[in-house]
Write a structure and sequence with these properties.
The complex is a heterodimer of chains A (168) and B (316). With 168 residues, chain A is α+β, with helices and mostly antiparallel strands. Chain A is 21% helix and 40% strand. Chain A is built from two helices and ten strands; from the N terminus they run H-E-E-E-E-E-H-E-E-E-E-E. In chain A, 27% of the residues are buried. The longest helix of chain B is centred in the N-terminal third of the chain and has 8 residues. In chain B, strands 6, 7, 8, 9, 12, 13 and 14 form a seven-stranded antiparallel sheet that branches. A six-stranded antiparallel β-barrel of chain B has the order 1-2-5-18-16-15. A two-stranded antiparallel ribbon of chain B has the order 3-4. Classes of the chains: A alpha+beta (168), B mainly beta (316). At the A-B interface, strand 7 of A face helix 1 of B.
């Protein structure tokens, strides 16, 4: 399912950039769009604010078909303390903006994309298009929580894909 | 067509609905050719199909009866025959609009025309304000009414565009028959009351007197005989006698790019006017337009078979 996970991340990142190109983070010295996959990064003692952090949870498999269909839960956490210019008093607005950006990115039609295999990138090879699509459901927003000066939310998206022959 | 696409069951999320006119006088439906147009963009259906938006609760039922013909002792099935052909379809609209209301009601759906001062109260709208004639240069999206008349309209207002009623009987309404007049009436605005040729004003030019509509009129470029009436809302009536009929197209898009297309050349409502009320967030209730329709037959010119619906699978 790694290809499905990578593909969903790539699609979501592309759509979030379109929605708000100014949302960026600096990670390992590189400025990049404000979305990251936690398991692909160095372990950090501090959660980055004002970006979307993806992590993968429960996985279910339906084998009653020509190809196994796998559904994975993608948890998307984000938090903000607002801006220093407004002494953090805009943290509610900042979180609402992130809610909106995520909602649009997930719900933009179509809610599917051709699955790609990105494994070759590590060896200087090209991304390979696979035979099936990745598709996903609607975003489910969790409760807003307060941690000190930060407002925080976790949202969940179910991501589905067929497990192709030989796919890791 | 990929091997995978052929073997996997389509995983559908939503179904999109479209409709097109049936010429009532000749019972001629609009034909959808999936071989030519099965892959059309969902937001831009081929003419003359009109987008009805997403629907939910899409349920198809087959009422066709197959019985066995038996003979001998003991009786043994020798062959099977179809004794009845029937298909129905039901669904709920996710949005309210003139077309959705008209189709869901299944009968004549009245435009509530702006009422003249002092008009006697009527259930489906009293005597209307005099309609405005169209000038030259009008198109399906721009209505030339003149500077003086334009001042009588407002951005966001609905307008009905159709001809005056002139004591005729039969089907009336441009683009799609909106009603059947059984005996002559006296209301000059009757056709505009029942027409589906309705639009919403997006902008008004105070210098040219042009009303620009949000979307093209169903009947296309208006004729010189058509006039414009302001519409404040819509009204349908339980007990109306007219059966609305239309060609229906329903598209379910699978997640591998494949499509299932259900085409019903002729659909008529099989239930009365109702809404599907369901719980909404915050303690509210949501009223959705719901409809159930029975398919009527056509003859497939390819082989002369009499059929009521077509199901096509188009690979991605």
């Amino acid at each position: 399912m790694q290809s499905a996970k990578d593909t969903f991340y790539e699609v979501l990142r592309g759509r979030l950039v379109v929605g708000n190109p100014e949302r960026t983070i600096v990670l390992r010295g590189v400025t990049r769009p404000g979305v990251m996959v936690v398991e692909n990064e160095l372990v950090s003692a501090v959660d980055l604010t004002d970006c979307f952090r993806l992590s993968w949870g429960e996985s279910k498999t339906d084998v009653a078909g020509a190809l196994p269909m796998v559904a994975m839960s993608c948890e998307i956490e984000y938090e903000t303390a607002g801006t220093a210019a407004n002494a953090g008093m805009d943290r509610g607005r900042m979180l609402a903006a992130m809610d909106g950006e995520l909602l649009v990115a997930v719900r933009t039609w179509p809610q599917h994309a051709l699955k790609n295999n990105y494994a070759g990138l590590a060896f200087g090879q090209a991304v390979k298009a696979m035979s099936t699509n990745v598709w996903w459901g609607d975003v489910v927003f969790g409760e807003l929580t307060v941690e000190g000066e930060r407002l925080k939310r976790a949202a969940t998206v179910q991501v589905m894909s067929y497990q192709e022959a030989g796919e890791l | 067509m990929s091997t995978v696409g052929e073997t996997m069951s389509p995983v559908l999320r939503r179904v999109r609905a479209y409709f097109a006119p049936v010429v009532r006088a000749s019972e001629t439906p609009t034909i959808f050719d999936a071989a030519q147009s099965g892959g059309f963009g969902l937001d831009c259906p081929p003419a003359p199909w009109v987008d009805l938006g997403w629907i939910d609760g899409f349920v198809r039922k087959c009422g066709t009866k197959v019985v066995a013909l038996r003979s001998g002792a003991p009786a043994t099935t020798q062959m099977q025959v179809r004794t009845e052909i029937e298909a129905t379809v039901s669904f709920g609209f996710e949005s309210w609009g003139k077309v959705q209301l008209a189709l869901a009601s299944g009968t004549q759906q009245m435009n509530l025309l702006k009422v003249a001062s002092g008009a006697v109260a009527e259930g489906s709208g009293g005597t209307a304000v005099a309609a405005v004639a169209l000038g030259s240069g009008s198109t399906a999206t721009v209505l030339q009414v003149g500077v003086a008349a334009a001042a009588g309209f407002a951005v966001g207002e609905l307008v009905a565009v159709d001809v005056d009623y002139v004591a005729a009987t039969g089907f009336v309404g441009s683009g799609l028959s909106g009603a059947y007049v059984r005996s002559a009436l006296t209301d000059v605005d009757y056709v505009r009351r029942v027409t589906l040729n309705v639009g919403r004003i997006a902008s008004i030019s105070a210098t040219t007197g042009a009303l620009t509509l949000e979307a093209p009129l169903l009947a296309g470029v208006p004729s010189a005989a058509m006039k414009v009436s302001g519409v404040v809302g819509f009204c349908d009536r339980e007990g109306s006698s007219f059966f609305q009929e239309w060609s229906g197209l329903f598209v379910g898009e699978g997640q591998q790019g494949e499509r299932v297309v259900w085409f019903y050349p002729r659909l008529q409502a099989m239930v009365g006017i109702s809404e599907d009320v369901s719980a909404s967030l915050g303690g509210y209730e949501k009223a959705r337009l719901a409809g159930a329709f029975r398919a009527l037959p056509v003859v497939d010119a390819v082989d002369g078979e009499t059929v009521v619906c077509f199901r096509s699978y188009v690979a991605g």
